[in-house]
Amino acid sequence: MERETRQRTAIRSVVEMSDRPLSALEVLAAAQAQVAGLGIATVYRNLKALAESGALKVVSLAGANPRYESSRQGHHHHHFMCNACERVFDIHSCPGSVLDVAPKGFTVERHELTLYGRCKDCPPGHTPD
Amino acid sequence: MERETRQRTAIRSVVEMSDRPLSALEVLAAAQAQVAGLGIATVYRNLKALAESGALKVVSLAGANPRYESSRQGHHHHHFMCNACERVFDIHSCPGSVLDVAPKGFTVERHELTLYGRCKDCPPGHTPD
DNA sequence: ATTGCTGCAAAAAATTTGCACGAAA
DNA sequence: TTTCGTGCAAATTTTTTGCAGCAAT
What we know:
The structure is a homodimer of 129-residue chains. With 129 residues, chain A is an alpha+beta fold. Chain A has 2 domains: 6-72, Winged helix-like DNA-binding domain superfamily/Winged helix DNA-binding domain (Arc Repressor Mutant, subunit A); 73-117, 2-Layer Sandwich (Dna Ligase, domain 1), CATH 3.30.1490. Chain A contains 3 helices and 6 strands; from the N terminus they run αβααβββββ. The interface between A and B is large, with 36 and 36 residues. Strand 6 (107-118) of chain A pairs antiparallel with strand 6 (107-118) of chain B.
């Protein structure tokens, strides 16, 4: 990752500017506003490279595609996914050590907590299939 | 799901007999011991049908393919995935209500907690890429 | 004998990779 | 000018679906 291309700059800024973790397709859509013709492969390549460089973090979720967020969201936190609009939001609280209770003989290295429900923009109702 | 076929019986029993949630491929491998020539499509079709009938439950995990477990594992619980052998185990404890803390305006319908680390059979060491 | 179920192969969906060309440095 | 990075298309991976034949009832 040596050159500062227009597409890389766009992709990085989209993630940095967002107030919530974005999926690859969300990044593509937003970045295309700055770089017309941007391809999805370039988005994936850069998201991976930026993640490896530490510039951003991969948010893996149970039952959903990964999202990407600025690594400036430094502290430990978890996520909320809306069952209606599929958007993911940060939750800036963590129950903490209570979570690391595993059976004897098991070593816990990290944990992921995902809440599912309705975000503030989506009225309650049935969950789309 | 009206007929009791050999493949359906095998798939159901493999999941019922297991002491931990299994992936589709783990189910395929185990069920092929009983039904040679069993196809992966049949495994997926039956896992889905059995899940819809309530006979088994889908365990979705952050950063891993879904696993399937007997719905007789009735009570609320969470999971542990080994970073070395990729096997998933049940954790029969849940921090509970502490987890349902979401931002104002958000409604939590359920949550998923996944612990990652080393299971009792895998010696500590580097995580395979 | 019906027709649901299965195996196989093709289709989908998400992500990765090969390649020739364009653009940073 | 050099060669990294991009766009496009083809390849992967995981799961789903179409179809003709087989088997459960």
